[in-house]
Write a structure and sequence with these properties.
By secondary structure, the protein is mainly α. The protein has helices at residues 23-68, 85-96, 108-111, 158-165, 177-186, 190-196, 206-217, 225-230, 239-251, 276-280, 296-299, 331-343, 349-360, 368-371; strands at 267-269, 307-309. It folds into 3 domains: 1-40, no CATH class; 85-221, Cytochrome c-like domain (Cytochrome Bc1 Complex, Chain D, domain 2); 223-360, Cytochrome Bc1 Complex, Chain D, domain 2 (Orthogonal Bundle). The protein contains 14 helices and 2 strands; from the N terminus they run αααααααααβααβααα. It has a two-stranded antiparallel sheet.
């Protein structure tokens, strides 16, 4: 209602405005007041929507994660390598057995130690007769799920890797499989092989050595909080880790580090934006006759120059130092290096902190069957 002869506008008693302003000034003030009211209303609406969309956002994040990652399976047994309790027990013993090597000191466990989450904490591992290996030893956990073994992918299965290690001049150093088999027999393993490989006329073979170790390694899975999250438990990982997961996917990390092992399922060039050693500080290596060129050392193909297997990121927070040569000591620095070399991006400190929080959710417990070294046959080392 508007009264003649006054500038009072009354809509209701609660919203009455009285003024002596001129009509033009009054109109401007009313408009400003309406803007304030609308802004407050809008902010109130946003607050309510925010409360609703926070839950929706969590659900959307989980669905995005499910499209890129998969939880660990309960087992990685395959028909080609049947398991039995006897094979797993034998495989564990052989995994820790040093006396098959030519110096009596080298074993699988020398580079894959339960104290270091299945790795050895060294930049470059040490092989038979103290020879320094040209590459870092990754964790043995979950490795049967990878596309191949070794950074160059020159071993397709854990069984192939275990068998060929017997003859490697850097691992066990035997001149042939007959030499290794003779050592196994001399150490008193024949009965164990007969139990693990019944109905075989000659069970003590390099192939069965590999099959037994493979059976043991296929039990070394490490389910982590992230697996619970992928199965629907929203509380399994922290808010910071969820922010990191979102950043990990949106910035492009999951383009290579995806799947059940969060990596390890493809081969990529290391150093897409610049030479990798400029960021990692990697040195030349005598055994490689210069820079590590990845897969090229096995294939000699130009297209394989600097192509490496993408590492899995499960347990990455527990297995420093990082990269194929252990050239980067800290995980946060490794995250920065990867963003720089592979994505051409500089991450903020907060981004790095949150991504590391996510990576920590990939840590699983050391498998109980791996945590304690077994009792081995009583026999002296003889080369």
């Amino acid at each position: 209602m508007c009264r003649a002869g006054s500038n009072e506008i009354a809509h209701n008693p609660a919203t009455t405005i009285t003024t002596s302003l001129a009509p033009k000034e009054l109109t401007l003030k009313i408009k400003n007041t309406l803007r304030i009211v609308l802004a407050i209303t809008a902010l109130s609406s946003i607050s309510v929507i925010g409360l609703v969309s926070a839950e929706d956002t969590d659900k959307a994040l989980l669905e995005r994660a499910k499209s890129m990652f998969k939880p660990l399976p309960d087992t990685v047994r395959v028909d080609d390598y049947p398991h039995s309790a006897a094979r797993i027990e034998l495989g564990k013993a052989l995994f820790y057995e040093t006396r098959v090597s030519t110096d009596g000191r080298m074993s699988c466990a020398a580079c894959h130690n339960p104290s270091y989450h299945g790795a050895d904490s060294l930049a470059l591992s040490v092989g038979v007769h103290g020879k320094k290996l040209p590459r870092n030893a990754p964790t043995v956990f979950n490795t049967p799920l990878l596309i191949a073994q070794h950074y160059g992918g020159n071993r397709m299965t854990v069984e192939e890797q275990a068998m060929k290690a017997l003859l490697s001049p850097l691992a066990y150093g035997n001149k042939d499989y007959a030499e290794a088999e003779a050592k196994i027999k001399s150490l008193g393993y024949t009965k164990k092989f007969e139990e693990a490989f019944p109905n075989e006329k000659e069970p003590v073979t390099a192939e069965n050595w590999a099959a037994a170790i493979g059976s043991f390694e296929r039990t070394l899975l490490t389910p982590a909080p992230f697996d619970k999250y992928l199965k629907g438990d929203q509380r399994a990982i922290s808010k910071e880790a969820k922010i990191g997961l979102d950043k990990f996917m949106s910035v492009g990390c999951a383009g290579c580090h995806s799947g059940v092992t969060v990596g390890g399922q493809s081969f990529q060039k290391f150093g897409l934006t610049e030479d990798y050693w400029l960021a990692t500080g990697s040195k030349e290596h005598e055994a490689l006759k210069g820079r590590d060129k990845g897969k090229w050392h096995d294939t000699q193909k130009p297209e394989d120059m600097f192509i490496f297997k993408v590492p899995q990121l499960r347990n990455v927070a527990m297995t420093p130092p990082y990269f194929h040569d252990g050239s980067v000591a800290k995980l946060d620095d490794a995250v920065r290096v990867m963003a720089r070399l592979q994505l051409g991006k500089q991450l903020s400190d907060d981004d790095v902190k949150h991504i590391v929080a996510f990576l920590q959710t990939l840590t699983g417990d050391v498998p109980a069957q791996f945590a304690k070294a077994p009792a081995l046959p009583v026999a002296p080392y003889s080369n």
